[in-house]
Design brief:
587 residues, alpha/beta, Rossmann fold, 3 domains, 6-stranded parallel β-sheet, 17% strand, disordered N terminus
Length: 587
């Protein structure tokens, strides 16, 4: 229940005070924000307290909301964003003004890029001072700064508009293509007092915030006609398919069509990676040699080489069917032969209805080629994953974690880094939907601890965060947050003493170490121990597997410092080609 409205005695004008004194219930901006969120089923806030929103957090706790306080706003924002992905309800990040708002802005932009529903709520300076640039405390036109980086941005100036402001933010975050929304609340708003009954009437419960968007029958027929012509079809599942939570319909479409599928990283587990139709281990082959590709909640961005180039074989060698709720996504990189606009659940159900009964199976030759390539690649990789050597490399360390996840398939895996991320995508099999969370569309580092906290809070599941030592540095202080709330999170830091590797040298021969080198043999596990958690240092795959299994079984906050060969790792992992190389002075 929300905290009781403020009670205040007021005298009606023109009447004798003794005779006409009446009691009237009042409320204020603090309570109306909390009541508006709770009315819409939002009961968790992620943030960092401070001026002018400290009391909002306190009052939210008093009203029965869960308020998770972080050490840095960007991590709180990442937690809110992944909460939105996992629940389909906007995650809430609450920050102070100016610097706190700016810290949260990266997470807001990342949420928008990844289509995660999130609302960044920030206190701000008073409009009349900001607009005249008179030098207020943390003065900044936050609304103007947020607008280019989110799906929508709103400012509320009057307490009576709080209900509408929250409702508009919720609807904008989850309707159509989900994304980040900014809600600006000036400090003066919180202290505004209005009649409690009028305040209650001003609140808005959002009805059907993300309505189904049905595909046009002609578009469904066109997609099915194109699919029927395929000899070497492929289905690509993106994280949008995982977000949709249309799991059973997607599985039925894949299995009834018999088409091989390729899951993008955050769609892994929508069907198990061990499913006979999964083509993850034959990625290069199916992208290059397929003739019809159906994209379900996946975009032809840099993660899929924009749908062209050597990755995709000869130009014009394939046709694309694309399911997306955003019409403007179609033809963004290549021609889409059959655009299917609508929500994923409705589109997949319509396609499924169209293939009921007799449906042409993919070419047996195509199925055999995919199967043989998978088996060859798996067999080639197996010895590298099973080697119990010290120091570890990325392959045998991830091989140990692969076994841990196989034995505990409901564990949520958070993953970031360069080599740590790239190799884990292909090595660690996932078995259930929405159990793999990583850097996504933008590919930015620093999401690890925020995602881990958000996933643990929202699901109650045990979380394994596999981090490169560089990636961990962006959000590592949040291990204190993990300990403070007693969350069942095990963090594994792949420690090879640097970015990509720890063997680079300063080309000038100066005393400073190379720009990519960290402190040698850093004891990351001591950071977790400092806050009351469990810290473990391991040097072999067997030790790593045992330590992580014990941590997940116990549910205790744990950090495992996994010592990796400093020479292991390559420049930027699998995307080194994106890092320009100087040719000046080279022969």
């Amino acid at each position: 229940m929300a905290e009781a409205p403020v009670k205040e005695k007021r005298e009606p004008a023109g009447m004798d005070a003794d005779a006409a004194q009446t009691e009237r219930e009042l409320t204020d901006g603090f309570h109306l924000v909390i009541d508006a969120l709770k009315l819409n089923g939002i009961n968790t806030i992620y943030g960092v307290p401070g001026i002018p929103i400290t009391d909002l957090g306190r009052m939210a706790q008093a009203a029965g909301m869960r308020v998770i306080s972080f050490r840095h706003e960007q991590n709180a924002g990442n937690a809110a964003a992944i909460a939105g992905f996992l629940t389909k309800s906007p995650g809430i990040c609450l920050t102070v003004s100016a610097p706190g708002f700016l810290n949260g802005l990266t997470a807001l932009a990342n949420a928008t890029s990844n289509c995660f529903p999130m609302i960044l709520i920030s206190g701000s300076s008073e409009r009349e001072i900001v607009d005249l640039q008179q030098g207020d405390y943390e003065e900044m036109d936050q609304l103007a700064m947020a607008k280019p980086l989110c799906k929508a941005a709103f400012r509320v100036l009057h307490a009576t508009d709080i209900g509408i402001g929250v409702a508009r933010a919720i609807r904008a975050a989850v309707s159509g293509r989900p994304g980040g929304v900014y809600l600006d609340l000036p400090a003066k708003l919180f202290a505004q007092v209005i009649d409690a009954e009028a305040g209650t009437r001003s609140l808005v419960k959002v009805i059907d915030p993300a309505p189904a968007q049905l595909p046009a029958p002609a578009a469904v027929k066109r997609a099915l006609d194109v699919l029927k012509t395929a000899k070497r079809p492929l289905i690509i599942l993106g994280k949008g398919a995982a977000y949709a939570q249309a799991d059973e319909a997607i599985r039925a479409l894949v299995e009834k069509s018999g088409i091989p599928f390729l899951p993008m990283s955050m769609a892994k587990g929508l069907l198990p990676d061990t499913h006979p139709q999964c083509a993850g281990a034959a990625r290069s082959t199916v992208l290059k040699d397929s003739d019809v590709v159906m994209l379900i909640g996946a975009r032809l961005n840099w993660l899929l080489s924009h749908g062209k180039g050597k990755t995709w074989g000869e130009p014009g060698s394939k046709k694309f069917i694309q399911i997306d709720i955003e019409p403007r996504e179609m033809d963004s990189n290549v021609e889409i032969a059959a655009p299917l606009v609508g929500d994923i659940g409705s589109c997949v159900s319509a396609l499924l209805a169209g293939i009921e009964g007799k449906w042409p199976a993919p070419s047996a030759d195509w199925i055999d080629v995919v199967k043989m390539r998978k088996e060859a690649n798996i067999a080639k990789m197996a010895p590298r994953l099973m080697k119990n050597s010290a120091p570890m490399d990325f392959h045998n360390a991830l091989g140990a974690l692969r076994t841990v996840i196989k034995e505990r398939p409901d564990t949520i895996l958070v993953n970031e880094g360069a080599n740590t991320l790239d190799l884990a995508r292909g090595i660690i099999d996932m078995y259930q939907p929405r159990k793999r969370l990583d850097v996504g569309t933008w590919g930015i580092m620093g999401i690890g601890m925020g995602f881990a906290v958000g996933a643990a809070v929202e699901t109650g599941k045990r979380v394994l965060a596999v981090e490169g030592d560089s990636a961990f540095g962006f959000s590592g202080m949040e291990v204190e947050t993990i300990c403070r709330y007693g969350l069942p999170v095990c963090v594994v830091v792949f420690n090879n003493n640097g970015i990509y590797r720890g063997t680079d040298v300063n080309p000038a021969g100066a005393a400073d170490v190379a720009t990519t080198v960290f402190v040698k043999d850093a004891r990351y596990e001591k950071l977790m121990e400092a806050f009351g958690g469990v810290g473990v240092r391991v040097t072999t795959p067997d030790e790593l597997g045992r330590a992580v299994a014990e941590a997940l079984n116990s549910g205790k906050p744990t950090l495992v410092n996994a010592v990796i060969d400093p020479a292991a790792g390559s420049e930027s992992g699998n995307i080194g080609k994106l890092n320009p190389q100087s040719v000046v002075g080279k022969k």
